[in-house]
Amino acid sequence: RKPLVIDQEEYICEIRKGSRLHLAKAITFIESTVTDQQTIGQQLLKSLLPFTGSSIRIGITGVPGAGKSTFIESFGKMLVDKGFKVAVLAIDPSSSVTGGSILGDKTRMEELAKHPNAFIRPSPSAGTLGGVHKKSRETMLLCEAAGYDVIFVETVGVGQSETIVRGMVDFFLLLALTGAGDELQGMKKGIMELADAIIVNKTDGTNEKLAKKTVAEYKQILHFLAPSTPNWITPALAVSSLYKTGLNAVWETILQFQSKMMSNQVWQNRRKDQTIDWFKTMIVNKLYDDFFSSMEKKQSMKQLEQLVREEKVTVSQAVEELFSSNSKE
Ligand code: GDP
Q1: pLDDT tens per residue, range 166-176
Q2: ipTM score
Q3: Ligand 1, closest atom to CA 205?
Q4: Best of 154, 242, 244 for a ligand 1 pocket test (most atoms within 8 Å of beta carbon)
Q5: Whose CA is nearest to atom 20 of ligand 1?
Q6: What is the pLDDT of residues 130-159, one digit of tens each?
Q7: What would the pLDDT profile of 75-91 be if each residue is shown by its tens digit?
Q8: What dotted CATH number matches 52-270?
Q9: By C-alpha distance, which of 241, 165, 242, 175 is closest to 214?
Q10: CATH number of 1-50
Q11: Which residue of 72, 76, 124, 220 shows the fewest CB atoms closer than 10 Å?
């Protein structure tokens, strides 16, 4: 098989100039499971790394139907109208695992996607946790090098996906619906403690009064929770993504957060910590991948499984055996 060769200089130049096509291809390399494509992706990322770091990274979570895609579309459009470039790492609506949109066939963020200063990348449907891919962080860095000022990383609350996204972003938004009390019962104190702002969406029409009451309830609850970011009082805000109200206040909040956290170094330190956490996660991923892709290990595992089943060895013994350098053939 011929090795894959690309003109790296051209890619880097085009990505820096804002070619969405080249950016999309580079992301495909990064996400690829084919070794030489992966290698190219990593080389591109390495060359582009000096151009990363200057965007605002925003994570956003909420149950399916909370209005994440509607919010990102309206908020994103407001930002591109202000002259910013906006990238979105979005949930793939076709993925049933992530929940996606409750309106399965609706194209998400269609309007925003048409804008020349917006770039929307759905996570691949395989290998994601709540819409977050193992390579989402690297994808985010590529977008940053391509000059995107604001990057959204979207997730639904599946397992650890919120924690993973919190570990990638500067600012974390929880999109909520009316009935804070109910939510506190069912979820999600833990998730509320990850948020830098709680946005009560659908504050419009017949829902408006209840939504405003919910905002007040959240404010009360937030008093008793630890803030996600030191020296920050997590606000609750009312928004209608459909009628585009309250969006500017969200942006103002994010800018205030940025300015405060940059001046007290929390912003910079958090990013450094996140990079180190990423490093550690990658080590674990690599160990995991190497281990489970080893034929030899697979065979020993099968044999040991049988022995465990027959209670001839204990589970701990079997694990020890598996990790001892030369397990029996
Ligand atoms: P997601 O699953 O969290 O991405 O939610 P969607 O953005 O797909 O929204 C789910 C439904 O809620 C859709 O029918 C939207 O039109 C509706 N929706 C989203 N935001 C608002 C809003 O601010 N007000 C109202 N009334 N409906 C909204």
Answers
A1: 999 999 999 99
A2: 0.99
A3: 26
A4: 242
A5: 67
A6: 777 888 999 999 999 999 999 999 988 666
A7: 999 999 999 999 999 88
A8: 3.40.50.300
A9: 175
A10: 1.20.5.170
A11: 220
